[in-house]
Design a protein that fits this description.
The protein is α/β, with parallel strands linked by helices. The chain has a single domain (2-147), classed as Rossmann fold (3-Layer(aba) Sandwich). It contains six helices and four strands.
Length: 152
């Protein structure tokens, strides 16, 4: 019986790693690059990335692309809270990762400061804006991380 449980955990981990479903929170120019990366030219579906979800329930990965304004923080927290665990966060672009060069009164210091303190950002994609190929590299880094993650 223990063998069946281990097999079920291994199958669950494999499917979670190879069938990621993102939900996109995109603003500004990074959202345009992200849309290009999710389009047919780069065909992330062959690598196991499902089409973006319209609702947070079935999503696994929250991709924040672009600046996070102070007004958007409650919506971002609500989206993250509505996602079913396990869930991961990706900061796509310099603005999403650290606030970028827009140091204004209305901009948060990146997605890490916008989400609750106990929510880690799992993958940072640098660039202003990042290239679509960088999304493929970031998804592979997330998959590698999920392959080593303990089940539970």
């Amino acid at each position: 019986m223990a063998h069946m449980v281990n097999l079920a955990h291994a199958l669950s981990r494999w499917s979670r790693r190879n069938a990621l479903r993102p939900i996109v929170f995109g603003t500004a120019c990074c959202a345009d690059e992200l849309a290009a990366a999710l389009g047919p030219r780069f065909d992330d579906g062959r690598s196991g990335l499902l089409p973006p979800s319209e609702t947070p329930g079935p999503a696994d990965v929250l991709i924040v692309a672009g600046r996070v304004s102070l007004d958007a923080i409650p919506a971002l927290r609500q989206i993250y809270g509505a996602m079913a665990p396990p869930r991961w966060v990706m900061a796509f672009g310099s603005c999403a990762a650290s606030g970028g060069m827009f140091d204004t009164y209305a901009a948060a210091g990146g997605v890490a400061s916008a989400l609750p303190p106990d929510v880690p950002v799992d993958v940072h994609v640098p660039g202003c804006p990042p290239r679509p190929e960088d999304l493929c590299d970031a998804l592979e880094a997330l998959r590698q991380r999920l392959g080593r993650a303990p089940q539970g």
